[in-house]
Amino acid sequence: MHNYELVCIFQPDLDENAFKSVVEKVKGWITESGGDITKVDVWGRRRLAYNIRKQREGQYVLFNMALKPSTVADLERNLRFQETVLRHMLTVVA
Q1: pLDDT value of position 19
Q2: pLDDT of residue 88
C-alpha cells in the first residue's frame, strides 16, 4: 500500500446534501478498492485560476489515503466519469 493525496474540485452549484453525497461516493470507491482513508479535508469554495466547464469557482476537497497501486486506475476512471467532479489530481506521498 502506498500513501496518496487526492484533490478533487467539485461543481460549485451543488447544494450541501449533493456535495456530501458525492464526497461519500468518492470515499466509497476508495474503501471498496481496499484503501484506507486517513483524512478528508474540505477546503470549501475557491475561485479557479481559469474557467473549467464555464465555472469560475469550485468546491475543493483533499483526501489522504493508503491505496494499492493496482487500484489507482479504477479510482481515476470513476472520477473521470463523475460529472460533478470538475478536476482531480492524485499524487503519491513519499
Answers
A1: 94
A2: 96
